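User: Run a structure prediction on this.
Assistant: Running it now.
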Amino acid sequence: MGEHGVSKRSKGANGGDSPPRKAAAKVTAKTPAKATPRKPAKTAGAAKTAKSAKSAAPAKAAEAAGTAKPAKAAKSTATLRPARPARPARAESRLGMVRRARRINRELAEVYPYAHPELDFRNPFELLVATVLSAQTTDLRVNQTTPALFARYPTPEDLAAAVPEEVEELIRPTGFFRAKTKSIMGLAAALRDDFGGEVPGRLEDLVKLPGVGRKTAFVVLGNVFGVPGITVDTHFMRLARRFGWTESDDPVKIEAEVAEIFPKSEWTMLSHRVIFHGRRICHARKPACGACPITPLCPAYGEGETDPEKARKLLKYEKGGFPGQRLNPPADYPGRPAPPAPGVAPGAAQNDTGAS
């Protein structure tokens, strides 16, 4: 041991009188000891990636050499991926829609060759009044009501001179009887004063009459005067939208749009066929889709009952084996006549041409 308590070996090794700690520190700084370097820690994701890469390398090599074994069913998440969304249906062209619409009309013509106005009438005046009364009620209810009305007031002059309260009582079953009394008595007075007691055969004259709009006017023009017209009632509006002929809720716009699809010569009978179909099969609340003969042509198929057996139970009038709406239907009508109003003997106020 030398002075300061440091061994001579240590002193000589340090090369002088420098304090051994400082010298050791310098030596360590200049010539660090060789130590096994630490590898950076691998994350769980990196470890999986590396493992996958190692396992994939021999597989790729084997596949290249043609010696790869069939892979086992992988338990990957590939089967859990959501399916690709279906491509949107191709939009129907204008020409395609027109062709489909005209085919629907031809199909309905085969289904309803007997389509006709379902109001009993004998002359233009009776049809005009009956059509005004048919608002917000059924044609059957009107047909059960008009025999007594026309028996008492057979001409415009008679109805125009009637006592309003008496008319109200006669037409009460049709609903809104006060407003309807005002309309039919007003139109009767206009026919008497402005048209010599005759129903005019022009649209512009008819729509001037109280309670007469385009729908009522086209019913009269098409079924009495032979003037083509599209009758846009609630049934026609509903089916025109379901068939994709229009997207409008406005009767005038629907009339104009449908008129561009069909030739003018088809307008009146088209109206009858569509209305017949709406009343018998394509109902408002629950269409009988499973019993419909034009399902391949209808974009709205499936809105109603698609089971054939259940759908057949939804059919109405002659399609369901029930009476029709007319007390005196045309000779070619395949269904049964409707019964008269309760308390009225069958045929009491009827004849073979219509209600009286």
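The first helix runs from residue 8 to 14.
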